[in-house]
Amino acid sequence: MNTQTQAGALAGIKVLDLSRILGGPLCGQILGDHGADVLKVEPPQGDDTRAWGPPFKDGVASYYFGLNRNKRIQFLDLSAAEGQQRVRELMGEADVVVENFKVGTMEKWGIGYEQVREQFPRLVWCRVTGFGADGPLGALPGYDAAVQAMAGLMSINGDADGDPLRVGLPVVDMVTGMNAVIGVLLALHERGRSGQGQLVDAALYDSGLSLLHPHAPNWFMSGKIPQRTGNAHPNIYPYDVIHTGGAPIFLAVGNDRQFRLLCDYIGQPAMADDARFATAGQRSVNRAVLKPLLEQAFTQRDGQELADALMAIGVPAAPVLNVEQALHHPHTVHREMVVKMGDYQGLGAPVKLSRTPASYRFAPLAEGKDFM
């Protein structure tokens, strides 16, 4: 695990992170993990997520710690003339600005994109919003769960006979932050050709809709409104939580070869030849018959042992772990997905580069008055 300062893929890129809450700060943290010099400007009272607990450490919530590594903090009141002037000075030093204020707020302060672009033509400006700046919902505030509801995600999440459910993590905010990173990198790459910066527009609403695979293509082709299927995949079976004699496992059988391997391993080879289950399409159609047959065959087997054995022969399967078990898993350690710096712990960078890996240089709450 690289906790030392080194030249990452984005070394030399200076990022002014004016964002708060989740999507923007996650974007800034990813850029920082890969070597960018990130200066985060917070209001005098700090980012709202400092209060989003418990748990807390020294009065700051874990939520904040999860999104603000590899940044140095400066406190400015952007509603005041002095703060606006200071931010404009910082923009002159920056390659990238990340912000997620309500549309019109920075313009009201005289430091919006269109107001500074002529002065700083190379600046890549990443704007994270709820719905974009225009259109029927343009400029309205956006929140993860509300967008999950509006983008159709809740309608296909949950048990078939249950209520629509929010995905149990802020998936729209997080994917928007990742899309913002993609946009920033695209704009920086293009700037190398043109010498010009541009506006990167990353909206929660767009990102929420982009997650509708395979439900959107299913609807485009069939015209049938997708329904909730619990843990089961709408197109593939067995791709579901299956009960065993011990802990449940998740099976993710995607093709006929894998299904035959499964049937042979559990001593039910005839099941792979049964016309109801012989092809992926038939298994999906006849899932209500297939699931209890599999669970009956699994009743005398331990879930963890069964999952391990199936994976070893090429059948995708996994035990259903809790968060603590997942973070302590030996492969989590091997993949360096838990970062430790002093008494700070966080999730590691999921993208590994062979020559310029991510590095962890500043734990959250590091203070800094300027770019380095």
TrEMBL record:
Gene3D superfamilies: Crotonobetainyl-coa:carnitine coa-transferase, domain 1, formyl-coa transferase, domain 3. Its EC number is 2.8.3.-. It comes from the Bacteria. GO terms for molecular function: transferase activity. Keywords: Transferase. InterPro entries: CoA-transferase_III_domain, CoA-Trfase_fam_III, CoA-Trfase_III_dom3_sf, CoA-Trfase_III_dom_1_sf. Pfam families: CoA_transf_3. PANTHER family: SUCCINATE--HYDROXYMETHYLGLUTARATE COA-TRANSFERASE. This is CoA transferase.
